[in-house]
């Protein structure tokens, strides 16, 4: 029968194949028959189901690849968002924007002086002092600034809290260090109740932020050098002192942390005296060599000595400070002015001893165990206060303190030891723990802006020193040509713009003035870097707040709004109508140069403008940051750039930017050609047996060596 199914050519001529299949299917279905459970043959079932699925025609829109949201999250409300409802400019996941960078005053704080009075004092250069705090990290600059702030701002200052008012950025508070220099203008009274306008710049102590210090020094006439008595000078601070000496700034010294001699080192008073003396002498020795280094004339050299009154002994942590003069005055007052404070102060330092029998001071010790006058009259009383306040019971302490006319409040005895000592010293040394001694010292040893103007102009101004503009600046003429030197850019609280900070060198700057702004690359031959803007706001900058003013005369610091867009780092500003030949103030010079070079490119090429904008802002805010933009021809070249720079960076300090600046390829006139040469140098087929003499530029040689090793 089988044979009949095929013709003589072997073709199938039997019944239709479909019929057979149907039968087979029927047979198969017949086996299943109704509700009957399938036989226990799962594997076979799966295969057959899949076969069935393959065969059935399912429209594209009916296909179901994933379970519905209802199935996955039963009972939850589900919203389906089609992608086009969100504009392309909005990121799907918005970046977290934290604009809480600064700690600012919510409203104008109450001050002991009126701001109109402060503005009025700006016209009196004899009453102005522009100073910059300089010192290593944790030498107490910011805490010292707090003393000034607490004396001038009426707030509920907590005795046991370090406010660090000028550390007005959140990250500064979090890290406990100053990062950006911050200024304040305060009206402070001296010991004779005469008011002075102090423009004070608190600078960072960390070596990484030296550019901030350099900017602060450029605006100041004098430097307050903070030194921790236990640590002494650090290398970074020596470098900064050298810079300040080059700028011909005047110095006073604050020997800080004297509490550490008592509490930490536990030195006896006579040893503490030697330590203090050694600290000052060591600084003087260093000064001597720095003076030699910068070539200061011998007559102009100033050294530190407590007898001269340019040294302040201080413990910012315990809120006490004094000079020999202020201490002698205090002593004299407690003895009903029975002796002259000035001459007593002269006997308080050095190898001077008090002879109780003759009631006179002498150069030799009357007894072998007689302490020096400084130890006897200054250190021993302070030691006693420390010892009693830390060690005695409340009742005993009250009677001990009463002997020196100190009467703390009852609740003060419940304070911790440090806070109690602060209260004690505040009563002993008077307002701000003796802050007036500091003001006296500054007034006496740091010149006002008018006195220092000729030296400042000589150092800063690059133009004709005998021209009309320079003359006005040297005379600090309020009515002369407007000249303004800006060195810093402070961001606005909303971070959307910068305001420019600087010092008026001559003339008076008014709100609404049209001004010429000359950048660092301006010269009389090339005025490309010159823009004209209108001054929109003038403020006195107070770290955590600003005070708007209508005008600022010469010799003062000012924050200017509305002109930032044209300023990169430093700038020279004059009135737009000024026809005189005005040149720029020299760009800031730094004692050391930046050591890190980073090449960056946006991950998304379309975001390049954003990256350029941000880097421009960073450069504006950070003095030592230098930015160079390189446009790379195309992607493959960029890839090459990355590889070559990696090769060089592992062997030398250079990167692709350095290579180019070193002009390693004499023929590479255009960037394109340079990249081509770089491409050739990076190829692995380069000759490997070149001697170093044939390949003079070393980074090239390094690329060759690396590539040849790889080739091997
Ligand atoms: N023992 C002692 N520590 C101090 C003194 N002044 C500052 N410090 C320490 O230095 C830290 C930072 O002080 P700060 O004023 O911010 O230092 P700055 O870096 O010079 O501004 C403080 O928290 C204290 O721990 C002082 O007079 N005595
Ligand atoms: Mg600080």
Fold blueprint:
Blueprint: H1 17-32, H2 42-55, H3 69-72, H4 115-121, E1 128-135, H5 141-152, H6 170-175, E2 182-189, E3 195-202, H7 210-219, E4 222-228, H8 235-246, E5 250-256, H9 259-263, H10 269-294, E6 311-315, E7 320-322, H11 324-334, H12 341-346, E8 353-355, E9 360-362, H13 373-391, H14 394-403, H15 417-429, H16 431-445, H17 449-460, H18 468-474, E10 483-491, E11 498-506, E12 508-510, E13 514-518, E14 530-534, E15 537-541, E16 546-548, E17 551-553, E18 557-561, E19 571-575, H19 608-621, H20 635-651, H21 656-661, H22 671-682, H23 698-711
Parallel strand pairs: 1-3, 1-4, 4-5, 5-6
Antiparallel strand pairs: 2-3, 6-7, 8-9, 10-11, 10-19, 11-18, 12-17, 13-14, 13-19, 15-16, 15-18
The structure holds guanosine-5'-diphosphate and magnesium ion (MG).
Guanosine-5'-diphosphate binds at residues 135, 137-143, 162, 164, 177-178, 205, 256-257, 259-260, 315-317.
């Amino acid at each position: 029968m089988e044979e009949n199914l095929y013709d003589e050519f072997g073709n199938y001529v039997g019944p239709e194949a479909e019929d057979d299949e149907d039968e087979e299917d029927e047979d198969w279905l017949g086996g299943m028959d109704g509700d009957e459970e399938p036989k226990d043959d799962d594997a076979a079932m799966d295969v057959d189901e899949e076969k069935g699925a393959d065969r059935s025609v399912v429209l594209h829109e009916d296909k179901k690849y994933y379970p519905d949201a209802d199935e996955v999250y039963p009972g939850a409300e589900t919203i389906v968002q089609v992608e086009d409802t969100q504009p392309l400019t909005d990121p799907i996941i918005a970046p977290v924007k934290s604009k809480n960078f600064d700690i600012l005053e919510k409203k104008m704080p109450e001050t002991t002086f009126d701001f109109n009075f402060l503005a009025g004092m700006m016209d009196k250069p004899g009453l102005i002092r522009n100073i910059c705090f300089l010192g290593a990290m944790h030498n107490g600059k910011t805490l010292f600034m707090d003393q000034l702030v607490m004396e001038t701002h009426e707030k509920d200052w907590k005795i046991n809290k370090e406010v660090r008012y000028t550390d007005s950025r959140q990250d500064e508070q979090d890290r406990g260090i100053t990062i950006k220099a911050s200024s304040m203008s305060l009206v402070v009274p001296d010991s004779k109740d005469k008011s002075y306008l102090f423009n004070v710049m608190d600078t960072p102590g960390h070596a990484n932020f030296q550019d901030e210090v350099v900017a602060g020094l450029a605006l100041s006439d004098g430097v307050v050098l903070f030194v921790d008595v236990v640590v002494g000078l650090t290398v970074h601070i020596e470098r900064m002192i050298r810079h300040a000496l080059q700028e011909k700034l005047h110095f006073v010294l604050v020997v800080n942390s004297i509490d550490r001699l008592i509490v930490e080192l536990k030195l006896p008073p006579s040893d503490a005296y030697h330590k203090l003396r050694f600290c000052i002498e060591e600084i003087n020795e260093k000064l001597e060599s720095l003076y030699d280094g910068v070539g200061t004339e011998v007559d102009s050299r100033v050294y530190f000595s407590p007898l001269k009154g340019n040294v302040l002994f201080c413990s910012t942590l315990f809120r006490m400070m004094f000079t020999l003069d202020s201490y002698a005055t205090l002593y004299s007052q407690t003895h009903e002015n029975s002796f002259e404070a000035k001459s007593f102060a002269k006997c308080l330092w050095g190898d001077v001893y008090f002879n109780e029998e003759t009631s006179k001071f002498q150069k030799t010790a009357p007894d072998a165990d007689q302490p020096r006058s400084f130890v006897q009259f200054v250190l021993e009383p302070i030691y006693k206060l420390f010892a009693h306040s830390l060690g005695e019971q409340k009742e005993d302490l009250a009677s001990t303190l009463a002997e020196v006319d100190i009467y703390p409040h009852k609740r003060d005895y419940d304070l911790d030891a440090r806070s109690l000592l602060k209260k004690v010293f505040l009563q002993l040394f008077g307002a701000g723990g003796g802050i007036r001694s500091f003001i006296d010292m500054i007034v006496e040893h740091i010149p006002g802006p008018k006195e220092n103007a000729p030296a400042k102009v000589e150092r800063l101004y690059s133009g004709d020193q005998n021209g009309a503009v320079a003359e006005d600046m040297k005379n600090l003429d309020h009515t002369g040509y407007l000249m303004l030197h800006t060195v810093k850019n402070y961001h606005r609280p909303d971070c959307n713009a910068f305001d420019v900070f600087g010092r008026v060198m001559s003339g008076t700057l008014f709100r609404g003035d049209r001004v010429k702004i000359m950048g660092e690359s301006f010269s009389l031959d090339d005025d490309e870097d010159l823009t004209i803007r209108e001054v929109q706001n003038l403020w006195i900058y107070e770290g955590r707040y600003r005070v708007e003013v209508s005008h600022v005369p010469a010799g003062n610091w000012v924050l200017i709004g509305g002109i930032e867009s044209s300023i990169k780092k430093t700038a020279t500003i004059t009135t737009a109508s000024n026809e005189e030949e005005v040149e720029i103030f020299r760009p800031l010079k730094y004692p050391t140069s930046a050591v890190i070079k980073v090449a960056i490119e946006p991950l998304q090429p379309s975001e390049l403008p954003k990256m350029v904008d941000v880097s421009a802002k960073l450069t504006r805010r950070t003095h030592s940051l230098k930015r160079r933009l390189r446009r790379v021809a195309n992607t493959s070249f960029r890839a090459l750039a990355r590889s070559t720079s990696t090769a060089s960076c592992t062997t030398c300090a250079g990167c692709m930017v350095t290579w180019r600046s070193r002009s390693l390829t004499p023929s590479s006139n255009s960037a394109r050609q340079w990249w081509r040469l770089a491409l050739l140098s990076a190829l692995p087929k380069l000759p490997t047996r070149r001697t170093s003499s044939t390949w003079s530029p070393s980074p090239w040689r390094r690329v060759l060596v690396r590539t040849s090793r790889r080739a091997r």
